[in-house]
Design goal:
The chain is of the alpha/beta class and 248 residues long. It has 9 helices and 7 strands. Helix 1 runs parallel beside helix 2, helix 1 packs across helix 9 and helix 3 packs parallel to helix 5. The protein is globular and about 45 Å long.
């Protein structure tokens, strides 16, 4: 499907690996100019070099920590137009209420919950001035299917689902769209490590729908579609890609 994204500019956070890197690959293949942000400079540069070589697109890298206000400000003020923001950075710790202490809880939320909100606040204002733009929040299906053993992440994701729906419900008045994606298990390094080291997760993985986790490309393709004019009447919506797990 031709998504007509050629020449548009996208900022992707958490872009150095996993879902974020795959979204970068898909948008590069669609002809987007890219701004890639993550904490790991070397991995960002490696990805950027590959994307430039394979797709002949403009790619800029921005080592940044979304817990730091100055880094958020810098990302929100990148040069040139900004058509697409993909909020994807996040590393909320697993564990029960008693296992996750206040410091770990706050640290995880500063990156994901407040990172998404604070960057969106600045970018939204910029897009509003332009009269166009799309914010895509990659959230997580635990917000729909809360897990007491992932309580910090489940609560964070539920908050970001509400944020996406609330902001997206009125964004059309500003010419903007705000949408979300709730991935379930995805074949990333983090999932692989969990399966190898966590007996409970390994047991869950044995019964994944279709016998596998989702491929990052399946999430990335949805992100590209939602960011395109092919999905131009979609806002305030959160799309779940979890093989039906949240319905059980």
């Amino acid at each position: 499907m031709e998504l007509a994204l050629t020449g548009r500019t996208a900022l992707i956070t958490g872009a150095s690996a996993g879902i974020g890197a795959e979204i970068a690959r898909v948008l590069a293949a669609e002809g987007c100019r890219l701004h890639l942000a993550a904490r790991g400079k070397e991995r960002l540069e490696e990805l950027a070099e590959r994307l430039r070589a394979v797709h002949d697109v403009e790619v800029h890298t921005h080592p940044a920590d979304l817990r730091v206000a100055a880094d958020i400000e810098r990302l929100a003020n990148i040069d040139g137009p900004l058509d697409i923001l993909v909020n994807n950075a996040g590393d909320v710790p697993g564990g029960s209420l008693t296992a996750v202490d206040e410091q770990a809880w706050r640290q995880g939320w500063e990156l994901k919950v407040f990172g998404y909100i604070n960057l969106s606040r600045l970018v939204y204002a910029r897009m509003k001035d332009q009269g166009k733009g799309v914010v895509v929040n990659v959230i997580g299906a635990a917000g729909e299917r809360p897990d007491a053993e992932y309580i910090a992440g489940s609560t964070a994701n539920a908050a970001l689902m509400a944020f996406t729906r609330a902001l997206g419900s009125r964004s059309w008045r500003d010419g903007l769209r705000v949408v979300g994606i709730n991935p379930g298990p995805v074949a990333t390094a983090r999932i692989t490590e969990l399966i190898e080291k966590n007996a409970r997760f390994a047991e869950i993985a044995a019964d994944f729908p279709f016998g596998r986790p989702a491929h990052p490309r399946e999430i990335a393709d949805m992100a590209a579609f939602l960011a395109s004019d092919r999905s131009g009447y979609t806002t305030g919506t959160v799309v779940t890609i979890d093989g039906g797990l949240s319905l059980i």
